[in-house]
Design a protein that fits this description.
By secondary structure, the chain is an alpha+beta fold. The chain is built from four helices and seven strands.
């Protein structure tokens, strides 16, 4: 199966929605990708860091994972192999993980901190994860088409086509949610942050 790209999705939508500007199509595709990731949390990575004596805050840097990735939620925090409950840590809008002042590392520990984060895409993302486009491109296309068809008084406005696109999106959302649930680490259960970065 050939890998699809964002441009493939945009070209197909441009043919189906004659007259719709390419920039608007790309914007809605980007929005659809972000929405799928935000609603299902399938894209998770573990960040391993050194604990530093008396240091309360640690930067959650995911730039090596994907150029346009951002941290949406902290899923799990482990200190020296022990899962720490959410009441002992917090996140900030600056992408920092901080420990409550009642607990800070008492000594330096190499690779002593593991933070599992759920990733999303930056608002100005120009690239999408290949696996998401390849497996769920139809859902991203469905989201974009659904929203574009609902714009009133445009040459491409079509409520019936919008319903068809909406079904594609919901089918993909359901499948990706099921996949994420089936592949979740049991250790993550109940360890979610209180709403994600900036909460």
């Amino acid at each position: 199966m050939a890998t699809k790209t964002v441009n493939d999705l945009a070209i197909r939508l441009a043919l189906e929605l004659a007259g719709c500007p390419r920039a608007l199509i790309l914007d809605r595709l980007r929005e659809g990708c972000r929405e799928l990731l935000l609603r299902t949390h399938p894209w998770q990575v573990d960040l391993t860091m050194d604990l530093v004596e008396d240091q309360e805050e640690y930067t959650l840097d995911v730039s090596a994972t994907h150029a346009d990735a951002v941290v949406e939620h902290v899923v799990l925090v482990k200190v020296n192999g022990t899962v720490y409950p959410a009441r002992l840590w917090r996140t900030t809008v600056d992408g920092e993980l901080g420990f409550e002042s009642s607990w800070v590392p008492g000594e330096d520990v190499t690779d002593g901190l593991v933070v599992r984060v759920s990733l999303g895409l930056a608002d100005d993302a120009t690239t999408f994860p290949d696996w998401l486009i390849d497996r769920y491109g139809y859902a991203i296309r469905g989201y974009a088409g659904m929203n574009l068809c609902r714009i009133a008084k445009r040459p491409w406005s079509d409520m019936q086509a919008g319903e068809v696109f909406g079904r594609e999106y919901r089918r993909g959302l359901s499948r990706l949610s099921a996949w994420a649930r089936d592949h979740a680490d049991p250790e993550d259960a109940g360890a979610w942050d209180r709403g994600g970065i900036g909460a």
